[in-house]
Design goal:
The complex is a heterotrimer of chains A (631), B (418) and C (205).
Chain A lengths: L14 H12 L5 H8 L4 H4 L3 E2 L7 E2 L16 H35 L11 H10 L9 H16 L14 H10 L6 H11 L8 H31 L5 E5 L9 E6 L3 H11 L2 H9 L5 E6 H11 L3 E3 L4 H6 L5 E4 L8 H5 L5 E4 L10 E2 L7 H15 L15 E5 L3 H7 L5 H9 L4 E5 L11 H12 L2 E6 H9 L13 H10 L4 E5 L4 H15 L8 E5 L5 H12 L3 E4 L9 H15 L3 E3 L3 H18 L8
Parallel strand pairs in A: 4-5, 4-7, 5-6, 7-8, 8-9, 11-12, 11-14, 12-13, 14-15, 15-16
Antiparallel strand pairs in A: 1-2, 3-10
Helix pairs in contact in A: 4-6, 4-8, 4-9, 4-22, 5-6, 5-9, 8-9, 9-21, 9-22, 10-12, 10-15, 18-19, 18-24
Chain B lengths: L10 E4 L3 H13 L5 E5 L11 H6 L12 H6 L2 E5 L3 E5 L4 E4 L4 E3 L2 E4 L3 E3 L12 E3 L3 H10 L5 E5 L3 H12 L3 E6 L11 H13 L3 E4 L3 E7 L1 E7 L4 E3 L2 E4 L3 E3 L15 E2 L11 E3 L4 E5 L4 E3 L4 H15 L12 E6 L2 E7 L9 E8 L4 E8 L2 E8 L5 H10 L24
Helix pairs in contact in B: 1-7
Chain C lengths: L1 E5 L9 H9 L6 H4 L11 E4 L5 E4 L8 H5 L5 E4 L4 E4 L9 H5 L6 E4 L8 E4 L5 H5 L5 H5 L5 E5 H16 L12 H18 L5
Antiparallel strand pairs in C: 1-8, 2-3, 4-5, 6-7
């Protein structure tokens, strides 16, 4: 099989990916790459953001060459159409994260009511701290009561009754002032998304800049709203992550065990599955069926959640989700929502794998639907894991191919854990920054995209940055990519520059810190805000940068926008659909600097992106009066 | 070699295939006055030889096989002499003589007599109902015999054998096929495609025996059975011998026109003898891929050679860029297209790239020497074949990554400069 | 006479030409009803993918001389001088695919033609919308192309336009670009090209 994998070197840098692509071809299983090829050439109107389907007077497109139609039927020009389309991407992304947060808040509420067997308050300390932020008094109240009140208060953040989001209080004053002046301080989580849908309706907001500004606000309602609530409540319910060691890549699947994979995003489901796989009776049943045990692993963000909190191994990221099934070793994959390809059910049908959808919001072709609610989650999880164990007997060992050995990685670097590793305060980090041993920090985040060689963008960029003494924090698919490349172990300091090597070596941490899932990008923001507050600056003064070298999803658009709106320069790999409007492009890549102190850059080549980030970081250092270099 | 404008030349063309027909039409395009005569050994109006298997199958009527309408020859003032085989060509006296004794002088001569089928010389080969399939007459005689035929044996798994098999299957007979080499179309496809073709044939009901040949036939007047050289026997009431063809050059015996496999011609398709040309299955012109002369007996080569020979005969000096063997055929739902050097000899610096995509049911093999494409095999997606064949024909180095040409998505779009 | 001219640098790959072509060669000539016809009508223009994931509308050039016509076994391919178009006689075609070998552009396809003999797979290619032209309409592909990749004009006028473009490009101060008219499209294509080239790059691990 391996002599044919040369051609897959174009698709992915990972060995397990290349080998599994070979198997998929042998077995005639369609993959995301096949479907991408079939789609080519993709429509240029849409790639440029110049097509609009918002109303029945259309559909419309604008000719970028100036000869065909220049306006939609309603009269919207290229700027408006591009801005409207981009706005809706932000809305969709923000809505996804925020809905994820809402579901967690509802579980918190149910926990406080005692109606969620299996769920509990995992970090009472954090509960009290966050409750205090919301002005919930904790004197003489037990965790349940506080949880109930906190849930109520958080739900208010979602609505119209309140005129502001609570957790914005964590943002440095200078940044808040900037937002106020621009009129982009988020008012309510659902409100901003709803208003974006309103504004982008035909005949509402037809000022492209006004639309973009609301886009910033919509994204902020996610970054300092929905996603932040999601992360904090996940910590409260399931525990705040602490440094933990685990393994990644397809080698985490075990030939001799019942393999259960969780996919999707919300830990409200995956945590229950975890509990079930640790059930003694079920493990005994597995052994009776001839398996050595039950092996729970994850893919994508829900996997990251389990990895961060419990060291559960990760089998792969976004473009690997079909290929993990092709190993033939998966008894059951359970999914909830977001980033789950509708092709998975079909792929699983080629094997004995049971595909279970769990969310009423997310049903898929050829998957069996078993709806999870806080009330039934624990029992349902047990029942499903039992079926997975029984499915072990149906595995065809001739078709099993787990081609690699897993790679070790460290995870669990929540802000609390990072501060803990630093000794309790950010001072050691600040000192290292001031001395220049660490030049700055970069958040490498985001998805995979078949337009970019899988994991190549993430790993290349990360390596270049750590070589140049820039600390990397990563989340999402990027985090898994770097882990698979062996960058998440303390020994990886050998890839780092001398300063970073020294600092990380002394602390016993890798030069690349896994901060979590995609909602956990807010951890980076929280850390940035904490640093800014300590130094008395704005976030945009700090030597920080963000990058999404292989993004694909609308959620990534929202994240990128809230990161930039919060003052952090962000480099994108794949091109966003805005090239149809020179105005929007200019604003995104230059103009935003003048309004929010940060902007985007689009650079597909991670080597060049690394240079952009280095240059930016050194400039910020200079601005702070720190020793800097001219790149 | 030029001639004065308006000078009348007597053009004689021997052969009523596509080479001869196109040569005549081409000469007429440039020379409206000179007489043009086409001689044909068969008594039939020029017909498309590859279609005789369709005649056998019953899917075309004889008149539908005509290459041109009668009107096309009349309106161009091209004289047709049918049923006249050439006995001798007198190069010095510039005249030819037919079997029936007719003497025909010429100023320019084109020999486009095609090829004769090879017969096998074994015991019993004179029994009735043993046919070759080259001429329309063969198909007609087979049709006459068919009502009494239940089992057919096809000797030879080449193009003609496959077409005969297809036609006779359609006629409801049981078909068995033997081939001396390892798989059908051994000279035209590679092992992998050969295996796919074998599989398809067997699925269609053909009984295949590869690696064997016929030792003898037996029967009482009519063939009844064939004995193979592996000791086995095959019952058959009709045999189609399709073991190859040889350029039809027997009448050139006394002339000094050099013949190798076929008539050797230069880059203007002229033979050793001045003003005598050859084109089509009988001609041995330079093969663009092999860079030496070779007979490439396929329809499109005959067509292009007829045109180029015609131009040269009409006084337009046109260099023939060289022939390239190529074939396309459909076997059930499997389409096969090949061109150039398909089976590269090992250790001669050829780089063979292959890609099989079982999901899309495609297979492609490319034979490169350095960056120059020399050979091609495609299973399915044959609509893309022409683009790849044109790259072989031009023998210029490919400037993009060679693997690109293997991708199912490759097409002309990628050849555009951007 | 007017002919369809392709300007590949304008193609955005939207494939509207394919949809319009198939519809124009259906029995009912209406997109919605064409979708339920049997056989399903198929386009004769094919948008291919370039090296850098750009689109290219690949269409029969109606060559003169036409290689497909020269090699056609039953003589089914012929030239209609009135419309300067190479056409295929659907009754005579025997589906031998010899024309596939001859066409260097790969524009011939083999399937049942909505307007040809029923249940017969034959060679199908662009017919220059001769039927539409005879009714005073422009070819279907040109009608729907909104970015100027397909135009219907006299050869002389399209040549003049290209000459003018060339002259502008080589004049002092002109930017050295493929297409001067759309910086946004150029930007998109430059980024797509970078994406493709990166896939070929060896990972430095």
């Amino acid at each position: 099989m391996s002599d044919k994998t040369r051609k897959y070197e174009k698709y992915t840098i990972t060995r397990d990916g290349q080998l599994m692509l070979g198997k998929a071809e042998q077995e005639q299983i369609e993959t995301v790459w096949d479907r991408f090829q079939d789609q080519l050439p993709q429509c240029g109107y849409c790639e440029m953001g110049l097509s609009c389907r918002n109303c029945a007077m259309g559909p419309c497109r604008v000719d970028p060459f100036g000869e065909g139609p220049q306006k939609g039927v309603c009269g919207a020009d290229a700027d408006i159409i591009v801005a409207r389309n981009f706005g809706r991407m932000i809305a969709a992304g923000a809505a996804s994260h925020s809905d994820h947060g809402r579901d967690l808040v509802e579980v918190l509420e149910k926990v406080s009511q005692g109606k969620a067997a299996g769920y509990e308050i995992g970090d009472p300390g954090k509960l009290m701290r966050v409750a205090a932020e919301y002005g919930v008094s904790t004197e003489g109240k037990d965790a349940s009561a506080v949880a109930g009140e906190l849930a109520f208060a958080m739900q208010e953040d979602y609505g119209t009754r309140k005129k502001g989001l609570q957790l914005i209080s964590r943002v440095p004053k200078k940044r808040l002032d900037t937002w106020e002046k621009l009129g982009i301080t988020p008012r309510g989580i659902d409100r901003e998304t709803s208003e974006m849908m309103h504004r982008t309706h035909m005949g509402v907001d037809n000022d492209w800049l006004n639309l973009l500004l609301h886009g910033l606000r919509n994204a902020l309602s996610d970054g300092w709203g929905g996603s932040l609530i999601a992360t904090e409540v996940s910590d409260i319910l399931f525990g705040t992550p602490k440094p933990v060691t685990s393994t990644v890549n397809m080698g985490v699947l075990k030939e001799d065990q019942v393999n259960v994979i969780v996919h999707g995003h919300n830990p409200v489901v995956s945590e229950m599955i975890l509990q079930a796989t640790e059930d003694e009776d079920l493990i005994k049943l597995a052994k009776e069926k001839g398996a050595a045990g039950i092996n729970l692993t994850g893919v994508c963000c829900t996997g990251s959640e389990l990895l961060m909190r419990h060291g559960i191994p990760m089998a792969g990221n976004h473009l690997m989700t079909e290929l993990v099934l092709v190993t033939g070793a998966v008894e059951m994959m359970l999914v909830d929502y977001q980033c789950i390809m509708p092709s998975l059910g079909h792929t699983a049908k080629c094997f004995h794998t049971l595909m279970i959808s769990t969310s009423d919001k997310a049903k898929f072709p050829e998957m069996e639907h078993n709806e999870f609610h806080p009330e039934n989650a624990r029992e349902l999880a047990r029942g499903l894991v039992r079926r997975a164990v029984e499915n072990f007997a149906n595995r065809n060992s001739d078709r099993v191919y787990i081609p690699v050995e897993p790679v070790k990685c460290m995870s669990g670097f929540s802000v609390e854990a990072i501060l803990g590793a630093l000794g309790g305060t950010p001072d050691p980090l600040i000192d290292a920054l001031k001395a220049g041993k660490i030049r700055g920090a970069a958040g490498i985040v985001g998805c995979n995209n078949p337009k970019i060689k899988h994991d190549y963008g993430h790993v290349t960029l990360t390596k270049r940055l750590i070589e140049n003494d820039i600390l990397v924090l990563d989340t999402g698919c990027a985090g898994i990519a770097n882990a698979k490349a062996g960058l998440k172990v303390p020994e990886a300091i050998k890839f780092a520059g001398p300063g970073l090597k020294e600092v990380c070596g002394a602390l016993g941490i890798p030069p690349v810190l896994h901060v979590g899932s995609c909602v956990d990008n807010v951890r980076i923001l929280v850390l940035a805000a904490a640093l800014a507050n300590t130094l008395g600056t704005d976030i945009s003064d700090l030597p920080l940068a963000g990058a999404a070298p292989e993004w694909y999803s609308e959620k990534a658009v929202s994240i990128g926008v809230y990161v930039v709106a919060s003052g952090i320069f962000t480099v994108l790999g794949p091109t966003p659909p805005i090239t149809g409007s020179a105005n929007v492009v200019k604003t995104a890549t230059e103009g935003l600097n003048n309004v929010v102190g940060a902007c985007f850059a689009v650079e597909p080549d991670p080597e060049k992106a690394a240079l952009l980030i280095r240059r930016h970081i050194e400039q910020k250092r200079k601005g702070l009066g720190l020793p800097s270099l001219d790149i | 070699m030029s001639f004065a404008r308006g000078q009348i030349m007597r053009h004689v063309i021997v052969g009523t295939g596509i080479a001869g027909t196109l040569a005549a039409e081409t000469i007429r395009k440039f020379d409206p006055k000179s007489p043009i005569i086409i001689l044909g050994g068969e008594p039939f109006f020029p017909y498309c030889r590859p279609m005789i298997s369709m005649l056998l199958e019953g899917s075309v009527a004889p008149e539908e096989m005509a290459i041109r309408e009668k009107e096309d020859f009349l309106s161009r003032d091209i004289e047709l002499l049918l049923g006249e085989s050439v006995r001798e060509v007198n190069v010095l006296e510039r005249k030819l003589e037919t079997e029936r004794g007719k003497v025909i002088p010429f100023d320019r001569l084109l020999i486009a007599t095609g090829a004769d089928p090879v017969k096998i010389q074994v015991d019993g080969c004179d029994l009735a109902n043993i046919f070759t399939m080259r001429h329309r007459e063969d198909a007609e005689r087979m049709l006459k015999a068919l009502p009494e035929v239940r089992r057919v044996l096809i000797v030879g798994g080449g193009l003609v054998g496959l077409k005969a098999a297809h036609a006779l299957l359609a006629r409801g007979t049981k078909v068995a096929m033997v081939e001396k080499l390892a798989h059908p179309l051994p000279l035209v496809v590679d092992g992998k495609s050969g295996a796919a073709i074998s599989q398809r044939l067997e699925e269609m009901g053909v009984m295949l025996k590869m690696g064997v040949t016929v030792a003898s036939f037996a029967g009482n007047g009519f063939v009844k059975e064939a004995s193979l050289d592996d000791g086995s026997r095959v019952r058959c009431d009709l045999v189609v011998v399709a073991v190859g063809s040889r350029p039809a050059v027997s009448f050139l015996g006394k002339s000094f026109i050099r013949v190798n496999q076929g008539i050797l011609v230069d880059s203007f398709l002229e033979t050793d003898a001045k003003d005598i040309y050859a084109a089509g299955d009988v001609a041995e012109a330079t093969d663009v891929v092999l860079n030496r002369r070779k007979v490439n007996a396929v329809w499109p080569v005959a067509a292009e050679q007829g045109i180029v020979a015609g131009m040269n005969m009409a006084g337009k000096r046109v260099v023939y860029r060289g022939s390239m063997g190529r074939n396309v055929l459909r076997i059930g739902d499997l389409d096969v297209l090949t061109g150039g050097l398909v089976n590269a000899p090992p250790n001669e610096g050829y780089d063979v790239l292959e890609d099989e995509n079982r999901r899309r049911k495609t297979y492609r093999k490319l034979v490169f020497k350095g960056n120059v494409l020399k050979g091609l095999v495609m299973l399915n997606q044959v609509e893309k074949g022409g683009t790849l064949l044109s790259i072989i024909q031009r023998q210029i180095p490919v400037s993009m990554e060679k693997e690109r040409l293997l991708e199912p998505g490759f097409d002309f779009s990628q050849l555009l400069p951007r | 006479m007017k002919e369809v001219v392709i300007h590949p640098e304008r193609c955005v790959g939207c494939m509207q030409c394919m949809v319009a072509c198939a519809t124009a060669h259906s029995k009912t000539k209406n997109l919605l009803t064409a979708l339920v016809e049997s056989p399903l009508p198929k386009p004769r223009i094919h948008v291919g993918v370039g090296l850098y994931r750009e689109g290219f509308p690949n269409r029969c050039r109606h060559c003169d001389p036409a290689p497909c016509m020269m090699v056609c076994l039953p003589g089914a391919i012929y030239r209609d001088e009135t419309w300067n178009t190479v056409l295929i006689n659907t009754e005579r075609c025997i589906n031998c695919a010899t024309c596939a070998m001859a066409c260097p552009f790969g524009v011939i396809r083999y399937h049942e033609d909505s307007l040809g003999p029923p249940e017969k797979t034959i060679a199908v290619k662009c017919d220059n919308c001769v039927d539409r032209q005879s009714r005073g309409l422009v070819p279907a592909c040109v009608e729907v192309c909104k970015c100027g990749a397909l135009t219907f004009e006299e050869q002389s006028s399209s040549l003049k336009r290209k000459t003018d473009e060339m002259a502008r490009r080589v004049s002092v101060g002109a930017e050295d670009r493929g297409v001067v008219e759309s910086p946004g499209f150029d930007l998109l294509n430059a980024l797509k090209k970078a994406n493709v080239e990166l896939s070929g790059r060896e990972a430095s691990l």
